[in-house]
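Progress report, Aim 2. The chain analyzed during this reporting quarter is listed below.
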Amino acid sequence: MKQSIRVTELVSYLALFEVGSTTLFFLGVEAKRDAWLAMALAACAGLLLLTMYLIIHRTNPELDLYELCRRYFGKVIGFAASFAFAAYFTYEASRNLRDLGELTVLTLLNRTPLAFIMLVAIIVIASTVMYGPRVVFLVSGGLLPIILLSYATIYTLLLSTGLIKGEMLLPILEHGFKPVLTAAIPELVSFPFGQTLLFLVFFPLVKKKEKLRRGVVITYIITAICLVAINQVNILVLGPTLAANSTLPLLQVVQLIEIAEVFERIDVLFVLVLFLGLGAKMTAFYMGAVIGITKITGVPYKIVTVLLAVCLYILSFLSPNYPHHIWLGVKFVVTYITSVFQVALPFMLLLTIWIRNKSAT
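Predicted structure tokens for the chain:
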């Protein structure tokens, strides 16, 4: 399925993707008050990874991640690497599906079976993916302003109600720099900043690539700053202890907003924004996996979309409960898997490209 998109559409979706499910959690919990430092450090490391991905793309602008693997790793290793990337994207999409289902149960439909909620979600998202990247990226252009305005409204209301307490930031580096480093690497680098690896699948779809690199980097930096600010609200309002022990800390923060007994239940707005972000992120991973499987096997795009929908639904039940789902993602996947796909394999690919291009000249 060969489709083309604009730079503005890609960077809009990149921002939407980065926000995604990030605000669902309190990131950098180990660093406590210094979570903002851990996020900033992870964002800098993620920018280095993004630079590596852009360099890989620049070597062969017309080839996506799967095509680059096959060209430079060879037929057998390239097939294995391509399939591994597609499997990784599939698993990440299944985690987003579980997050979406659990969020719905916790906030809106606590008497509705989780399995039914996720079934409806996967049907809706699969129907969206069926139309291909062009339509998905166009929709993102309409969703991004809604999400930005919603978070800006929430932040403004928190400031106007005096819920944000600047003294919660102090003392800075109370326990030294080690907790900040431990919190940032590898957890925060892997989620959400290192996940921009996925866009190696979408970069070749851009028609005019002259402004691609600049647009992607600027968007990444602005989004990272916003994520640091939004994440730190948990500390500034709830304090380090309560924020660390809350299942949905930012939702708890938003529930505290009350202005003249008129502006209440702003949490409904926040939940809506979370649904949009989770849906966008899941769609991106899902679509990246479908494109990969289609190119690896030659099976038509729409058929792969249906088959992967079934696979995603089954994978979303790997964890028996939500705490185990979180533990599996943080302690196992981040520690042992994501660094392979976000760092090791792309670095090996870039090194192979350099070696083979140099030997060819």
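The chain has a mean pLDDT of 90. The CA atoms of residues 60 and 68 lie 8 Å apart. These observations will guide the mutagenesis work planned for the next reporting period.
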